[in-house]
Specification:
By secondary structure, the protein is mainly alpha-helical. Helix content is 75%, strand content 3%. The protein is globular and about 65 Å long. The two termini are 41 Å apart.
Length: 486
């Protein structure tokens, strides 16, 4: 049977948009179930994109969109984007399924499901876009729905957190738009599959615009200050999507747009990116060591983990880019699991303060065990998913050689030790010690929670043991093979 993969590319984006509209207009209970079914269908379409893998772009769709303006509906999938598309579809399905059982105040689970599907469509569209204008549009689709999720279903400070998130990312969007328009005007094309035919100096200032925009979205130090507030106030499913895949839009953009469209500008700015990456690792870890709120600690840990991803990207080598890609996937799996667990603990204890938690293993040993697994994976324990991204990033920096990159590798390795310190501190406070009054009546994990967590636990082990599932896919992408040839 012949399957038109061009149409599958389109349906992978269209299905969640259609499902979002239908979920929004039907009743609450029906809408929640419809959102979960739609997310499942999207995951099926996303998985089908892996058929017929080959070197370079696996599948591509290139249609005229707005002929008068020269805009094209240009979509494509390769070994860089495919794992991220699958991760997005999986996490959205888990969040929509979780929301059937648990929708935070004020309810309206059908509206929450609809917004999650719109966010999914925007993120997947970003990963599949091969035209700069289309990339920008998909990149921006995510902004307002995510702000709405935080503002409506978040905690007490939700409105302030949502506004801060919107303003920061809107500022980045302006810079991204200026960069996109500049490339299109100067080259007459928005094709992301070809490096821009621009002088090196012009590429540098355009790359700087791109880099700041993507640094805000990732977020990377020092443009990260919206992230802790957003995570602290967001509902559980909002935090999972935000950390699991939305942050990856920034690091993916640095690879696909920064390196792919303005390679000369990227090469010139690479040492600065490396320094900022290592600063993010150290600063994020030190803040986590002093952090006393569970969700804020996990949020700040993302700053450090994204620092390892940026360090891999900054090296510009094939190993470094592969480290960034598997680091992205591992972070999405493990941090998504951590936020699911943090939400479950907060639902039971009604607090996120580490000083008011403790003794979780006495009341809920299975939940404490899964929390330990997620933390050990995040600190880079060999055999779990988080190890490979950090180890490869440090190795890629050391392999590049020279005083700067060798120093960055050593400091990043020290940052890895600090990561272990703050995550073990978190486990000591939450799982061990005397049973805190807030957890005295805590129950073990419920079956809907187990269903949501189980795929992430499985992937944490699978990617830790078989990292080639991601690394080999990425190796055939044009950007990676081009980096290997340099």
């Amino acid at each position: 049977m012949n399957i038109n993969t061009d149409v599958i590319l389109l349906w992978t984006i269209a299905v969640p948009l259609i499902g979002a509209v239908l979920s929004f207009v039907v009743s609450d209970a029906t809408g929640r179930r419809l959102a979960a079914v739609t997310a499942f269908l999207t995951l099926v379409f996303a998985a089908m994109l892996g058929m017929g893998q080959k070197q370079g772009m696996w599948h591509e769709l290139d249609w005229e969109w707005v002929p008068a303006l020269g805009l094209r509906l240009h979509l494509g999938v390769d070994g860089i984007s495919y794992p991220l598309v699958l991760l997005t579809a999986l996490l959205t399905l888990l969040c929509c399924g979780y929301s059937i059982w648990h929708t935070p105040t004020p309810g309206l689970g059908n509206h929450l499901g609809a917004l999650l599907l719109v966010i999914e469509a925007g993120i997947i569209g970003t990963f599949l876009a091969q035209d700069l204008v289309l990339f920008f549009i998909a990149f921006e689709v995510v902004l307002l729905p995510m702000a709405a999720v935080i503002a409506v279903w978040g905690g007490e400070g939700r409105r302030r957190a949502a506004l801060k998130f919107a303003l920061y990312t809107l500022a980045g969007s302006v810079l991204l738009l200026v960069g996109v328009v500049s490339v299109v005007i100067k080259t007459g094309s928005g094709d992301m599959t070809q490096p821009a035919s621009l002088p090196p100096n012009t590429q540098l200032w355009i790359f700087i615009l791109f880099a700041i925009a993507f640094a805000i979205k990732s977020p990377l130090w020092p443009l990260h200050t919206w992230l802790p507030d957003a995570h602290t106030e967001a509902p559980t499913v909002g935090s999972v999507i935000l950390a699991g895949v939305l942050l990856k839009m920034g690091t993916y953009g640095l690879i696909r747009v920064g390196l792919g469209v303005t390679p000369d500008g990227f090469a010139e700015a690479a040492p600065v990116l490396g320094v900022l990456a290592v600063a993010a690792i150290i600063v994020g870890s030190l803040v986590c060591l002093a952090q006393n709120e569970l969700k804020r600690l996990i949020a700040y840990s993302s700053v450090g983990h994204m620092g390892f991803v940026l360090l891999g990207i900054a090296t510009g080598s094939a190993i470094g880019l592969q480290a960034a890609l598997i680091g992205n996937i591992a972070h999405g799996v493990l941090t998504g699991l951590l936020f699911f667990l943090a939400g479950a603990i907060k639902d039971r204890s009604h607090t996120g303060q580490l000083a008011e938690l403790g003794g979780l293993r006495e009341r809920a040993p299975w939940m404490a065990g899964i929390l330990g697994l997620a933390a050990l994976g995040s600190l880079g324990l060999p055999g779990l998913a988080g190890f490979w991204g950090e180890a490869f990033a440090v190795f890629a920096s050391y392999q590049r050689g020279g005083p700067l990159w060798t120093t960055l590798a050593v400091v990043a390795a020290v940052g890895g030790a600090l990561t272990a310190a703050y995550l073990l501190r978190m486990l000591r406070k939450v799982s061990h010690g005397p049973l805190a009054p807030s957890l005295a009546t805590a129950s073990e994990a419920h079956w809907p929670e187990v269903v949501a967590w189980a795929p992430l636990v499985f992937l944490a082990f699978l990617l830790g043991v078989v990292p080639v599932l991601v690394v080999d896919l990425a190796a055939g992408a044009s950007l990676i093979s081009g980096a290997a040839g340099r």
